[in-house]
Amino acid sequence: MSTDTHLGPDLGRRLLGTWRMLSWKRVLVPSGDESDALGPDPFGYISYAPDGRLMVFVLKSGRPMPQSNPPSPEEKIALFDSLFAYVGSYEVQADRVIHTLDGSWNELWTGTRQTRLLSFDGEHLIYTTPETADPMDGRLCTYRVEFERA
Prior knowledge:
Layout lengths: L10 H5 L1 E12 L5 E3 L6 E6 L4 E7 L13 H8 L2 E10 L3 E9 L8 E9 L2 E5 L3 E2 L6 E10 L1
């Protein structure tokens, strides 16, 4: 795979629209062990609007189906642990996008700024992150997320 590291002045326009998640890899620091962040074949989208707003919604594939409505407390935990979502605003810089979160599936993230380093592989959008604590288990890691236009 060849990665386009020269993003150019049109990055903001190139980013606009809705992108479908293809993969989400987590690499543990310092071991380098790689795994799927929400299992294989996550279902998700990220959408960048011209007004500077964004929405992210991701589900683990094979999510458990609750046995009843409302779900039991254990089922609610399983559903929460198989979801990743937030909304906010974004700012495009030379090689990255900064997400400022107004609301999140996990209130610890609400009000934070999330940096995503950008590159393109052909028509695929690639995110990588600086080292961070995994919101699911707290382990130090980096992420690599790949999207295609929806």
